[in-house]
From TrEMBL:
ANK repeats lie at residues 84-113, 254-286, 616-643. It comes from the Eukaryota. SMART domains: ANK. This is Uncharacterized protein. InterPro entries: Ankyrin_rpt, Ankyrin_rpt-contain_sf. Signal peptide: none annotated. The lineage of its organism: Eukaryota, Sar, Alveolata, Dinophyceae, Suessiales. Keywords: ANK repeat, Repeat. Residues 764-785 are annotated as: Disordered. The keyword Repeat applies. Pfam families: Ank.
Length: 785
């Protein structure tokens, strides 16, 4: 009943193009629909529904049949074979159906069996077993090149053996001769064997499959007079010539052999087996090599030269072991990419020349050890007839290949005057060969922000890694410098423009290591240090309108101060983790006060163009507080910054206005700065880092100062200049002395900060068992705190 339904549905498709009955059947339960039963009487044979669909070329319905439960590998009797639908589709030469069956899960290696019809004389063709689809095509004397190539690309091999029912194996390549084929002949199959060899060389089981193929070929050569080229010559061409009229027709001097294909594919094991089988390593093939974005070079290369172009040292050594000369050369022609006009002709290209051309830099030293000469000379001929002798180093120069030049020079290549003159004319190589450095700040920023490969290219130019640069003053120039790079970010751009482009100061002495730090690229800093850069030198922040005093030209920042001034908190932390952060208590001996709270300064509604004060002993922690970078200040404290480190704030010239004197101090601690600038949050954070008022456990114990030490630290409010003697009360009369942070907060009306200090002070008094009484003051003494 089910068979009749299926047959009616298929007949409706054939005769009326009506797919409705077939669609209804596909929607039924496949267990009761007989979808895998060979019960449909179709042209005198009984087939499954899927087999019939494949014969009707219903490739679009095959996935639906499989989804409905059809098994694409159920075998039926068809065309004198017990076979699967895949065999039937191959016999009919239907490529689309073959591909659809394979996509639906058909077994490419399914085996068919021949059988004789009752009353028919049994021949060799009727006794064959274990036939995959290619064997079936040969056994039935059917030749469809498109189907053959499809099946071979999917893994089937003509050389594999099939079986005889009465025993014994027969290589598939021998079937045409034994069966007397008229269509699937040896001559036709010979054109397909190159496809099979390529498949074997690419396969995972290369050694076993190639050995098996070579053994079959050997048997055919020894015992049978076959016409296959592979049986007579292991170097038969595995790729047919380009058709007449095609783009590449006539350009290839020799078709590739199996050995050349294996070398080109990087299959070292196949190269070894083919060489032992007698393959000729002197055969050559055309190879296209990109010189740059505009030009390509066409080379006529042998197997060892292909291995060099691939950068495969193991294969090179293997080929040279078979008595190939390390002095082997080849020729090439360079064509422009668009109009294919001949630009250059090369002769005498040695293996080391090919190393440079392929940029296989790691092969320079090993190839030299294999007796390849760095002094080997190739000849370059230009269209005007000019001939130049070119060594591998000279070739690297002509290619503007800094890395290639580096490898050749490191391995001992001679730098002649001709090579030096050519290098000095090329920007990337100029500095490497003794010329002036063309590398700018923009080059370094781009290299760091574009990633490791770009930075490595710049490092290969052997440029001065410690050269100092000036940062652009204009914010627009700085944005143009930073934006549009792979690793740039708006946050980094905003931070650096704000730090470096304030319109009042300029930054000089910025080295590549400093750039890596302020750009938040630790990997770049590590690469620079590995390449030999030194983490030293000062970055100077100088006034655009300099002072007359030569000692007050700017702030010289070491790495710690630079991090506070312009780097991120994350970079400061990473430098600490890598052990690259210098002493966080370094103090700049003398610097003009260019910090935001004091510069520029206004007097009587007039903005002064130059600073009025100078800092003596400015440390990173002081600078972080002056710049309002609380997170950085806290990290510095945890990295060992001294909470009691003092700094002096003095007038550059004799005060001429009361506001100048009001801001002159000696001995300001970080907590004094918080009180002076009314930074309550910073003051509370610093006090939170104190060790508490507990006794020392042992003498000389290292720990942060106690709360009472910070709260009790005193400074002096004095009339102080650069030239005055701070130890002389005559030269520096004091206005207030013994000023604690709390006193300073009241004096400068920093009442919010004063509240925090009072709370901290009260907390200390409550914890202390005894509080010393204030000392009485003599009548003649000046009042002081």
């Amino acid at each position: 009943m089910a068979a009749d339904q299926w047959k009616s549905a298929f007949l409706a498709v054939c005769l009326q193009s009506d797919f409705q009955p077939l669609t209804e059947l596909l929607s039924q339960d496949h267990k009761s629909s007989g979808i895998n039963e060979a019960s449909i009487d179709w042209e005198g044979v009984f087939l499954t529904p899927l087999f019939v669909a494949s014969l009707l070329r219903l490739e679009d319905q095959l996935p639906q049949l499989v989804a409905a439960g059809a098994d694409p590998n159920v075998q039926c009797f068809y065309a004198g074979l017990f076979c699967s639908p895949l065999h039937g589709a191959a016999l009919r030469g239907d490529v689309a159906v073959v591909e659809a069956l394979l996509a639906a899960g058909g077994d490419i290696f399914a085996e068919a069996e021949a059988s004789a019809v009752e009353g028919e004389v049994e021949t060799l063709a009727h006794t064959l077993m274990g036939l995959h689809a290619l064997h079936v095509l040969v056994a039935k004397d059917i030749y469809s090149e498109e189907v053959y190539r499809l099946l071979m690309r999917r893994g089937l091999r003509l050389s594999s053996c099939c079986l005889q029912r009465r025993g014994g194996e027969i290589p598939g390549l021998l079937l045409p001769r034994l069966l007397g084929n008229q269509h699937a002949t040896e001559e036709r199959l010979d054109r397909l064997l190159g496809e099979e060899v390529q498949l074997i060389i690419r396969s995972a089981g290369l050694a076993h499959d190639l050995n098996e193929f070579l053994e079959v070929v050997s048997v055919l050569r020894r015992d049978h007079d076959v016409t296959y080229r592979c049986a007579n010559d292991i170097d038969f061409p595995i790729r047919e010539p380009e058709p007449e009229g095609s783009e590449n027709a006539g350009r290839e001097e020799e078709a590739p052999t199996a050995l050349l294909f294996a070398a080109q594919a990087g299959r070292c094991e196949a190269v070894r087996l083919l060489l032992y089988a007698g393959a000729d390593a002197a055969r050559s093939m055309r190879q296209v090599l990109a010189m740059d974005d505009r030009r390509v070079m066409l080379l006529q290369t042998q197997a060892v030269q292909l291995a060099v172009l691939r950068g495969d040292l193991v294969m090179v050594e293997q080929l040279l072991f078979f008595d190939i000369s390390p002095d082997l050369t080849c020729s090439g022609k360079v064509f422009s990419g668009q109009d294919k006009e001949l630009c250059e002709e090369w002769t005498g290209l040695s293996l080391l020349h090919l190393v440079v051309l392929s940029r296989s830099y790691d092969l320079v030293e090993p190839m030299k050890q294999l007796d390849c000469r760095l002094e080997a000379v190739a000849k370059q001929r230009l269209p005007d007839g000019t001939v130049t002798e070119v060594t591998p180093l000279h070739l690297a120069v002509l290619m503007e290949d800094a890395k290639g030049c580096t490898r050749c020079i490191d391995c001992g290549a001679e730098v002649t005057e001709t090579i030096r003159e050519a290098a000095l004319q090329r920007r990337p190589l100029r500095e490497m060969f003794g010329g002036s450095s063309p590398i700018s700040l923009q080059d370094w920023v781009e290299a760091i922000l574009m990633g490791p490969e770009t930075l490595q290219e710049l490092l290969e130019q052997r440029t001065d890694l410690n050269k100092a640069f000036a940062w652009p003053i204009s914010g627009e120039e700085a944005k143009e410098l930073l934006e549009g790079k792979a690793l740039s970010s708006s946050a980094t751009t905003e931070r650096l423009v704000e730090a470096f482009c304030n319109g009042r100061t300029a930054f000089d002495g910025i080295r590549p290591v400093h750039l890596a730090v302020v750009l938040d690229q630790l990997w770049a800093l590590q690469a620079l240090l590995k390449a030999g850069a030194k983490l030293e030198g000062f970055v100077t922040e100088a006034l655009l309108d300099p002072l007359e005093n030569p000692n007050l030209q700017g702030l010289e920042m070491d790495l710690a101060l630079l991090c506070v001034r312009a780097a991120s908190l994350e970079m400061l932390r990473e430098l600490r983790d890598e052990g690259l952060l210098p002493d966080v208590n370094y103090a700049a001996p003398l610097t003009p006060d260019m910090t935001p709270p004091f510069f520029p300064w206004q007097v009587d509604e007039r903005t002064l163009p130059q600073p009025l004060w100078a800092w003596q002993g400015l440390a990173p922690l002081h600078l972080a507080l002056l710049l309002g970078r609380r997170d950085v200040a806290l990290l510095l404290v945890r990295l060992g910054a001294n909470l009691l480190q003092t700094v002096d704030h003095v007038a550059i010239e004799a005060p001429w206005h009361y506001s100048v004197t009001d801001n002159c101090f000696r001995g300001l601690t970080p907590l004094h700065l918080c009180a002076l600038l009314d930074q309550k949050a910073n003051a509370s954070a610093l006090l939170g880092e104190a060790s508490g008022n507990v006794p020392f456990v042992f003498p000389g114990e290292k720990r942060p100062p106690q709360n009472k030490e910070m709260l009790g630290a005193v400074c002096r409010h004095v009339w102080a200049t650069l030239d005055s003697n701070k130890d002389s009360e005559k030269e520096e009369p004091w206005l207030w002395r013994d000023v604690t942070p709390l006193h300073l907060a009241f004096l400068y009306k920093s009442y919010v900060t004063a509240e925090a200090l009072i709370e901290a002070t009260n907390g200390n008094v409550k914890k202390s068992p005894r509080c010393p009484s204030p000392q009485p003051r003599k009548p003649y003494e000046s009042p002081s705190f």
